[in-house]
Design a protein that fits this description.
The complex is a heterodimer of chains A (212) and B (208).
Chain A (H helix, E strand, L loop, with lengths): L6 H10 L6 E4 L3 H4 L11 E4 L3 E7 L17 E9 L2 H9 L5 E4 L3 E3 L4 E2 L15 H7 L2 E5 L11 E2 L14 E3 L3 E6 L2 E7 L5 H8 L6
Helix pairs in contact in A: 3-4
Chain B lengths: L11 H10 L4 E4 L10 H6 L3 E6 L8 H8 L4 E4 L2 H13 L3 E4 L13 E4 L2 E7 L3 E12 L4 E2 L8 H7 E12 L18 E4 L12
Parallel strand pairs in B: 1-2, 2-3, 7-9, 9-10
Antiparallel strand pairs in B: 4-6, 5-6, 7-8
Helix pairs in contact in B: 4-5
Classes of the chains: A alpha/beta (212), B alpha/beta (208).
């Protein structure tokens, strides 16, 4: 079940909400796409948790240097003003609340902002957490970008996560192919709906009490 | 402890030497659990590792780890990446443990002591120390002062400080005094052995 926005459109929508001067970490996968749409008139500094601020675009041809990679282990480039640091400093930047925004993908997000994005919990699945739990609790604002429904139609915005948690009450804003949701202690606020869907239809599709 | 994030900063030549040396029943601390069939992957494939402490074992090319883990031949302690880095840093800095908000309320904090401090919940994590650290840096001098290259720095500085014997492989050993003291990343006090691996030197950058 797909909403009106393509994955590129979703990434573009997130990019609009990243403000001038922000220090930002983009997670692996769909969140990485956000970097393609950052407004060129804003100075936004990208953090990669393997130890760099001022990350540039993916490296091509002669630019490829295997000592210069992003968190997804893809060769990238450095921008003027970039800096390198070790892992304890890099995660200190997160945990210490120095990053303005991190954008993450998710399996599920709960209405109270719990995040599940690191492990399906399946018996055969090999768990791997990386920096997901540090990112979830560290940034001043945590944005999640994901499709609102699984392929089978189950809603990924839920009352309570059934997948293993990455962090509790940590997600501020959820960007989906149907709508943008602000997750607040007093409930879910629908900030923006895409296409022709009405609030009532969205509430029915998600099975959640939604308000604007 | 073995440095590296994926293959960036992975001391492949030192791992090859460890393979040749023959030690087994090893506990390995690394961010990952081997890429492909070289380096850490080869050490795992040779059955020399009993336990691995890491944050992100599952990757597209972690087939050797995946097989051993599924067959129950390898113990895994999964640690969030920032907690892993801080546990190593704490080990090197003489800190026994620390309270971190990371992983609170998740399965990775199960069984661990927690504390509510100034309105927030924290998990107690203990320090990590090692008998040996194998790390990769860019240049080093006889005193063990090290500079790294770009994102290959990753775990090197903490691991050097948290091991009884820290062994660094470098592309080039340079004269004492030729590394700008302001540019030294790992001071020589943390490094016990230096191995020059030579090979093609990547282009030098300012201050290195």
């Amino acid at each position: 079940m797909k909403g009106p926005l393509s994955r590129d459109d979703m990434a573009k929508r997130v990019a609009q909400d990243i403000t001038e001067g922000a220090y930002v970490n983009l997670g692996i996968g769909l969140p990485t796409k956000v970097s393609n749409f950052l407004p060129s008139d804003r100075e936004i500094i990208l953090h990669t948790e393997n130890g760099m601020l001022g990350m540039g675009p993916v490296a091509e041809g002669d630019e490829i240097d295997h000592d210069l990679i992003n968190a997804g282990k893809i060769p990238v480039t450095e921008l003027p003003g970039a800096s390198y640091f070790h892992q304890a400093d890099s995660f200190g930047m997160m945990r210490g609340g120095h990053l303005d925004v991190c954008v993450l993908g998710a399996f599920q997000v709960s209405t109270s902002g719990d995040l599940a994005n690191w492990h399906t919990g399946g018996p055969d699945a090999i768990p791997a957490v990386g920096g997901a739990m540090d990112l979830a609790i560290g940034a001043k604002q945590v944005f999640v970008i994901m499709e609102l429904f699984m392929r089978g139609g189950q809603c990924k915005l839920v009352e309570e996560c059934t997948y293993p948690l990455t962090g509790i009450g940590c997600v501020n804003t959820l960007y989906t192919d149907y709508a943008v949701f602000d997750l607040r202690p007093d409930g879910v606020l629908v900030r923006e709906i895409f296409g022709d869907t009405t609030l009532e239809q969205l509430a029915e599709l998600t099975g959640l009490p939604l308000r604007i | 402890m073995i440095g590296g994030f994926g293959t960036a900063g992975q001391p492949v030549e030192l791992i090859d030497a460890l393979l040749e040396q023959g030690a087994s029943g090893l506990t390995i601390v690394n961010n990952n659990a081997g890429n492909g069939t070289t380096g850490l992957g080869a050490l795992l494939a040779a059955g020399r590792v009993r336990k691995i402490i890491c944050s992100f074992p599952r990757q597209v090319d972690s087939q050797i780890f995946d097989g051993l883990y599924r067959d129950g031949k390898l113990e895994l302690e999964l640690v969030p990446q920032g907690t892993l880095a801080e546990r190593i840093r704490a080990g090197g800095a003489g800190i026994a443990g620390f309270f971190t908000p990371t992983a609170f309320g998740t399965t990775l904090a199960e069984g661990k002591e927690t504390r509510h401090i100034n309105g927030r919940d924290y998990v107690l994590e203990d320090a990590l120390l090692a008998d040996f650290a194998l790390i990769k840096a860019h240049r080093g001098d006889r005193l063990g002062n090290l500079v790294y290259r770009k994102t290959a720095r990753n775990f090197g500085p903490m691991m050097a400080s948290a091991a009884s014997v820290a062994i660094a492989q470098v592309s080039q050993v340079v004269e004492v005094g030729s590394i700008d003291p302001e540019a030294v990343v790992t001071p020589g006090i943390f490094v016990n052995r230096l191995v020059e691996t030579g090979g093609a030197l990547p282009p030098a950058t300012e201050g290195q």
